[in-house]
Write a structure and sequence with these properties.
The strands form two sheets. A five-stranded mixed β-sheet has the order 1-8-7-3-4, with no helix packed on it. 12% of the residues lie in helices and 30% in strands. It has one domain (20-120): Immunoglobulins (Immunoglobulin-like, Sandwich), CATH 2.60.40. It has one helix spanning 2-16, and strands at 22-27, 33-36, 43-48, 55-58, 79-81, 86-89, 98-101, 115-120. A hairpin with a 4-residue loop joins strand 5 and strand 6 (86-89). With 123 residues, it is of the alpha+beta class. This is DsbC domain-containing protein. Residues 1-20 form the signal peptide. Keywords: Signal.
């Protein structure tokens, strides 16, 4: 029993002192989704059910609203990552549902990167 209490305390200490954030954002298909990842987050990586590869979008004045897996392919449209770290997806589609994170986030020992999970809102 005392072993269980110790494990619970260790888990709670990890939750309390963690700098990383995991969030869930409920979105609606066809509606805009907006999330602020924070300054200096110039790349966002997403993982979705519809693609086996991670997809990336880069803050750039030449953005055309698409994601890429290798820098040349174009996936989806209507997304824009601003230099202040705000990601806007003009109209959410099934293709946009998934997990989003910042690969340029400064690594911290034993901590996960910050992540947002876009999930469909129940109507």
């Amino acid at each position: 029993m005392s072993r269980l209490i110790i494990l619970a305390c260790v888990f709670l200490a990890g939750v309390i002192y963690t700098d990383a954030a995991v969030a869930r954002m409920l979105v609606e298909l066809g509606k805009e989704a907006r999330f602020d990842f924070g300054e200096n987050m110039l790349v966002v990586r997403r993982t979705t059910k519809l693609s086996p590869n991670s997809q990336y979008i880069f803050a750039s004045p030449q953005q055309d609203g698409t994601w890429t897996t290798d820098g040349t392919d174009k996936i989806g449209k209507g997304a824009h990552l601003f230099f202040n770290g705000t990601l806007i997806i003009a109209k959410m589609t099934e293709e946009d549902i998934g997990s989003y994170e910042m690969p340029m986030e400064t690594p911290r020992p034993n901590l996960a990167r910050t992540m947002i999970d876009f999930a469909l809102k129940d109507n």
